[in-house]
Specification:
This protein is mainly alpha-helical. Helix content is 69%, strand content 1%. The protein is built from 57 helices and 2 strands. A two-stranded antiparallel sheet has the order 1-2. The protein is globular and about 140 Å long. It holds the Pfam family FANCI_HD1.
């Protein structure tokens, strides 16, 4: 009989010890139940269990890994487990989820494997199942909040869900959208629980080297922005991304040295940002409404950031939108999609219009205009907000108030209450004192009437096709009555404008022309409105019917304008012409019928209409001008007009009469167009006489202005030679009015241009047949100048109209008018070109007025070229530049090819000849080349300036290779043409350099600076007057060319600064992502190599150019600018060298050959001669110390900063040489040590000589410090103790502004400068360093 054991159950009832198989079976059912069994396993079993884990293991088995590792297994077993996982080519989705969930539970000794596992997970995300991605992202967010590598986790999620490198989830678009929404919800929840993740998200987006956002990253940032503490940072990142991408795009188009591949990447990045921002708006519906407030905020931030967004390079934007356009499109789409966001958008618009500056309000007004045009019915709900804005009409800027009215007017078609409110607001504004407010109110009334007439016409159009004749005839009548009723209603308010200042009257007259143009039916009412006012300045029975003296008044010895009489006459003339050409005549009593009664017949008997009265008045004035405006009777005209005899009043009379004459020239030209009963010869004779009188009054104006200036005792600088205007003109306001008139109708101006072409052809025939008549020649020349000035004024006004946001049909109409007028203008251009060519022969000698005639011809050629430039500018804005080019070529004479061959123009561009579409551009450029070469030969400065702009304009439309050919042609002009004018020489050189491609542009600059160095070399007494290689470089142009080359260097430094910033971002991104995704930086590494090579090559070219300036004796300002630019360049070189040094923990690479060459060329060609330049500059300062003390103080600030930047650059070269074992300073020359000691001022007198010699030795470029001290002993004394103290302080300031990372060296210099108080060499410190 066996006895039982008292301490435990029988052996048959004990559980068996756990084994590997039992533990795995338990883990398959419940991993949490299997974990307590692990400590009972022996060490060998634990190792076997770790060896059994792999990527193919079930997820429950893998969940045992943290518990196994916490039992301190052998290192071989742990390494085998991780190696088995990482070496697997792919993981199934459950394995991905299991590994992601266990990483945060790994024991501390094994967390070094987390980065490798994390990189493996992120690389396998595209292979995961779509339904597992939200859970996988959630586990990764838990890992990031641990925190374990949060930056890498968040960057990987943003790249994957954003489609980085083409990564896409394996799911249909609808499923993918749901997955992204779930992940966004997880991120938003994680950010609220752990605010540190928000900072990491913002930092991860900022660290993106490409600079391009994706739609998922934008959605994440918008979600983060809902957290108040991170709102500014998140929306700021989105704003900066949009503005930076736009700036990078513009800079990439500006940098000719940048490879085309990088330019394409910049354009791609800009498009990516635009699409991402707009996609975030489209995706904000259906579960993402929480980001709507953030979208509103970002949209308005982009509107605010639009100042200066567009530049000259915008002509080749290739579909890239500005930040303003992106913001407007975002808010417009949001307004359409989300009804809950509309109130917030309108409230923000109202707040910004009332609080922002006028320039910042313009984008907001454009947004309101887009909303009104695209969504008028939803905007009707916010009329109350518009009324609140209109309450501040009288207190706004005139442009803002006018823009607000224009935006609100389309809504008056659907809301009559808004129209009544606008009328009420404008009535109040009419009683304000400010002229700008009254002008804005006048324009608002005009726009209201014009808008009303447009809508009435559109409403009447459907009834015009009705089958009922009665209804068809009645509907237009109803329209006329209502529209006329609105004008009658507001006529009292408009009548108040007639008692305002001249500027208000001018705005009224222009507005009345617009009203009648859009609705000719109201012409009679407008004439009735103007006739009583016109009688104040018209006397029918007087000898001179115009009361010109009533148009001015003298207040406090200043002549003031009361009435712009020429504007009034122009307004009446245009209204009569529109009424005459109108096809819908209107009975006189139509407006009386709307009140239910008709005027009595007795009142109408014997009463002439206002139209007849105005026609009679204009006829009387025209007869008077025919009779009196002759060369012998102009002085009597002034007396007959009862004008005051004072000099100021006579001057105003002479200014007013040309405008009045222009009105009647336009009136006579309109008769030519209409084919009036009067013979054409008589009308043309009348026009010639009026134009002759116009020229005479312009001459009188110039003479009277000079008399006024002499009487005031300021004969020195009152006349501007270019504009022929007084610098301090007492009648400046009248002149401004006179400049803005534009009294010619397009059709009349066309008739004048055709008439001018006919007379020019007749004059040319007379020259060939017999000796021309002096009177005919003078009249033809006067008419030509008159027509060209009028056309130029009209082209400029059309350019201003096209710059405004006008309707497409209106832009097309304006362009068609300009194109029609371009035909005779092009003929005039050709006539002047050929006539100027004949002038080189015997034409100038045969004329009795040789010099004066030639000057007139030059002025006319300049005006013609400016007209053609404006024509080409408008055609480019409409993308129809080929129209103007074809027009010029079709109007060319038959022997144009012979003319160009005679000028020996090279034509090496075979591609343009083969392409028929580009042949026109080739011929056009050859014509411009011929004119430009001729203008330079004849020293026609203004003409060459206009031709330069034309060549630049057409060259921007060409391929870079074709522009390069034009640049080579301009470089040939620099070599062959002798130009004495500094401005013309700058234009030619700039044309050549800007059109040439890199690196030929900087090679040309280097060659020209080398020749320039021979002319202004320091210490060269036998300098020549002109260069042999480049004739354009001579003694008269050397200073201006030196300034131009320094400006080009400055532009290159700006480009290099931007390129270096892009390179630094790529390097930081490569360092930050190399441990996460090994494949990610591969494409960016290729871009980095391209950018580095281009950057270092361009920097080498800049070194060559700057080295030439070190041998020149520059002027004070140019020397100071050269020192500043050189210091800035060395600062860029220091940043380049610093970027080559790898951070700690990363592999250090050997610098490329381009960088090594840059360091060699800089040390050999720039650094060593630079010290000599500084030394010679200081010697010149000592020689002229008392005369140019201010210059010495300015340059003493530049020199310490320059020396510090040089030494800072060499310091980084030394560090890089030690790390890479490559001697980058083998061509460098060490300068002497610049350590200083300061002594009290009472000892300064005894040691003045010692302190003076120290500064001279400080700039010595010798390699041996002792030799430098000996050489400096013979140098002249430079500065006293006070100036040395100031130089030492400036040196300290330069140290503070540097980017040096070694603070010990900076602190050492500061301590030395504080403990001693006079500048002298520290020989003991030199010996210590030598030891």
């Amino acid at each position: 009989m066996s006895a039982a054991t008292p301490d435990g159950p029988p052996s048959s009832q004990r559980p068996p010890p756990p084994t590997v198989e039992s533990v795995l079976q338990m883990a398959s059912r419940d991993p949490s139940a299997a974990v307590p069994l692990l400590p009972a396993l022996p060490p060998d079993a634990l190792a076997d269990l770790l060896y059994s884990l792999s990527a193919a293991s079930p997820p429950n088995h893998l969940s045992l890994l943290p518990a196994l590792l916490s039992l301190s297994p052998t290192s071989a077993a742990a390494s085998a487990a991780f190696s088995s996982l990482l070496n697997a080519p792919s993981w199934p989705s459950p394995t991905l989820l299991a590994v992601a969930s266990l990483l945060r539970d790994l024991p501390a000794p094994f967390r070094s494997n987390v980065p490798d596992c994390l990189a493996k997970i992120l690389s396998l995300l595209p292979r995961a199942e779509a339904q597992d991605l939200p859970a996988l992202a959630y586990q990764l967010l838990l890992l990031a909040s641990k925190p374990l590598h949060p930056r890498a986790v968040l960057a990987g999620l943003l790249r994957f869900f954003g489609g980085h490198h083409g990564a896409r989830m394996r799911a249909p678009p609808s499923i993918a959208r749901q997955v992204e929404g779930t992940v966004l919800m997880h991120i938003a929840f994680a950010v609220k629980q752990d605010p540190a993740l928000a900072r990491e998200i913002v930092a991860a987006v900022k660290a993106d080297a490409v600079g391009a956002l994706n739609g998922f990253a934008v959605a994440v940032l918008l979600s983060v922005a809902r957290v108040r503490r991170f709102n500014d940072g998140a929306v700021g990142v989105l704003r900066d991304a949009a503005t930076t991408s736009r700036r990078d795009y513009q800079m990439s188009r500006r940098c000719k040295w940048l490879p085309d591949r990088l330019k394409e990447e910049c354009a791609k990045a800009t498009h990516s940002v635009e699409k991402a921002l707009l996609k975030a708006v489209d995706d904000s519906i259906g579960g993402r409404e929480h980001v709507v407030p953030s979208i509103v905020q970002v949209g308005f931030l982009l509107l605010e950031a639009s100042d200066g967004d567009r530049g000259e390079e915008d002509g080749s934007d290739e579909g890239v939108m500005s930040t303003e356009e992106v913001g407007v499109n975002m808010l417009k789409s949001l307004f359409e999609i989300h009804q809950m966001a509309r109130t917030e958008i309108i409230e923000q618009c109202k707040f910004r219009i009332l609080s922002a500056k006028p320039q910042q309000s313009a984008p907001v007004l454009r947004l309101i205009g887009c909303l009104v045009q695209s969504h008028p019915f939803p905007m009707l709900e916010y009329v109350a907000h518009l009324k609140e804005l209109l309450d501040f009409f009288a207190f706004m800027n005139d442009k803002v108030s006018t823009g607000l009215i224009n935006c609100s007017l389309p809504l008056t078609k659907f809301n009559h209450d808004l129209k009544d409110y606008i009328i009420l607001v404008v009535r109040k504004a009419m009683f304000k004192r400010e002229d700008a407010v009254r002008i804005a109110a006048t324009n608002a009334i005009v726009e209201l009437i014009v808008t009303e007439s447009k809508y009435r016409k559109n409403d009447a159009n459907p009834f015009q096709d009705s089958s009922s004749q009665a209804s068809s005839s009645q509907q237009p009548e109803i329209h006329r009555e209502v529209c006329g009723d609105l004008f009658q209603e507001l006529s009292g308010l408009l009548r108040r404008c007639l008692s305002q200042q001249a500027s208000v009257k001018e705005a009224l007259y222009k507005g009345l022309i617009r009203i009648v143009t859009f609705d000719p039916v109201v012409a009679d009412n407008v004439l009735d409105f103007l006739w009583p006012h016109f009688l104040n300045y018209y006397a029918e029975d007087a000898e001179c019917p115009l009361k010109i003296n009533s148009c001015f008044k003298v207040e406090s010895a200043t002549v003031c304008i009361v009435e712009p009489l020429d504007c009034l006459l122009s307004c009446v003339s245009c209204i009569l012409r529109v009424q005459q050409n109108s096809k819908c005549p209107r009975p006189r009593d139509a407006y009386w019928k709307c009140f239910g009664f008709a005027p009595s017949q007795d009142n109408e008997v014997g009463r002439s209409s206002s139209r007849d009265l105005f026609v009679r008045a204009l006829s009387n004035i025209q007869k008077y001008l025919r009779k009196c405006l002759t060369e012998d009777q102009r002085e009597q005209t002034q007396e007959a007009g009862s004008v005051s005899s004072t000099l100021e009043m006579a001057h105003c009379y002479n200014i007013a009469m040309p405008g009045i004459i222009e009105v009647f020239v336009d009136f006579a030209a309109s008769k030519l167009e209409e084919g009036a009963d009067e013979p054409k010869e008589k009308l043309e004779k009348e026009i010639l006489e009026l134009v002759d009188a116009h020229s005479g009054f312009e001459k009188k104006t110039s003479k009277s202005r000079e008399k006024i200036v002499r009487r005031r005792g300021d004969p020195s600088g009152s006349i501007d030679k270019q504009t022929n205007e007084s610098k301090e003109n007492p009648n400046a306001s009248w002149l401004k009015l006179h400049e803005k008139k534009g009294k010619f109708v397009n059709s009349s101006l066309y008739e004048l241009a055709v008439m001018c072409v006919k007379h020019c052809d007749a004059d040319k025939y007379d020259k060939c047949s017999q000796r021309p008549s002096q009177s005919k020649f003078y009249q033809c020349s006067t008419l030509l100048s008159f027509v060209l000035k009028a056309c130029l004024e009209m082209f400029k006004s059309h350019t201003a109209k096209q710059s405004e946001p006008t309707i497409g049909n209106l832009r097309t109409m304006l362009y068609e008018d300009v194109k029609r007028l371009g035909q005779p203008i092009v003929k005039l251009v050709w006539w002047l070109i050929l006539d100027s060519k004949q002038e080189n022969g015997g034409f100038k000698k045969n004329m009795t007025q040789g010099t004066r005639t030639v000057q007139n011809k030059r002025d006319q050629l300049y005006l013609a070229l400016r007209c053609f430039k404006e024509l080409f500018k408008q055609s480019v804005s409409e993308d129809r530049s080929s129209d103007i080019i074809d027009l010029l070529i079709s109007s060319a004479p038959s022997n144009i090819e012979d003319i160009m061959k005679a000028d020996q123009l090279p034509d090496n561009d075979a591609t343009m000849t083969e392409d028929p579409e580009k042949r026109g551009a080739r011929v056009f450029l050859n014509i411009l080349k011929m004119l430009y070469a001729r203008a330079l030969s004849q020293s026609l400065l203004l003409e060459s300036e206009a031709l330069t702009e034309l060549i630049f304009g057409i060259s921007r439309k060409l391929h870079p290779e074709q522009r390069h050919l034009i640049g080579h042609w301009a470089a040939g002009l620099c070599r062959q043409k002798t130009v004495q004018s500094p401005s013309a020489a700058q234009a030619v050189v700039k044309l050549a350099v800007d059109l040439m491609t890199a690196p030929d542009d900087m090679i040309l600059v280097h060659e020209m600076t080398t020749e320039l160095k021979k002319l202004i070399a320091s210490g060269d007494e036998d300098s020549r007057d002109s260069s042999e290689a480049f004739l354009i470089v001579n003694i008269k142009t050397k200073n201006s060319l030196a300034a131009l080359f320094l400006h080009m260097v400055e532009s290159s430094l700006i480009e290099l600064d931007w390129g270096l910033g892009k390179l630094k971002a790529m390097l930081m991104s490569g360092y930050g992502s190399s441990n996460v995704d090994d494949d990610q930086p591969a494409e960016e590494r290729i871009q980095k190599v391209y950018l580095e090579e281009a950057l270092y090559s361009r920097s080498t070219s800049v070194v060559h150019v700057l080295s030439s300036f070190t041998h020149m004796s520059l002027k004070d300002s140019q020397a100071e600018q050269f020192l500043k630019l050189t210091a800035k360049f060395y600062k860029l070189l220091a940043r380049m060298s610093k970027s080559q040094i790898a951070p700690k923990g990363y592999r250090q690479f050997i610098p490329g050959l381009k960088f090594q060459k840059l360091a060699e060329v800089t040390c050999r060609m720039l650094t060593a001669p630079l010290y000599d330049f500084v030394c010679s500059l200081q010697e010149n300062q000592q020689a002229y110390k008392k005369v140019v003390l201010a210059r010495i103080k300015r340059e003493s600030k530049c020199i310490p900063d320059l020396i510090f930047q040089v030494e800072d650059y060499e310091k980084y070269l030394i560090q890089l040489s030690k790390l890479t074992k490559v001697n980058l300073l083998r061509h460098a020359k060490r300068s002497v040590v610049r350590d200083f000691r300061i002594q009290p001022k009472d000892k300064a007198g005894g040691e003045e000589c010692e302190g003076d010699t120290t500064t001279a030795g400080a700039a010595s470029p010798e390699s041996d410090p002792n030799e430098g001290v000996e050489d400096s002993a013979d140098a002249p004394a430079e500065t006293n103790a006070d100036e040395d103290l100031q130089a030492s302080a400036q040196c300290d300031d330069a140290v503070k502004d540097s980017e040096s990372d070694e603070e010990e060296e900076i602190l050492t210099r500061r301590k030395r400068s504080k403990t001693n108080q006079i500048v002298q060499d520290s020989e003991s410190d030199q010996e210590a360093e030598g030891e």
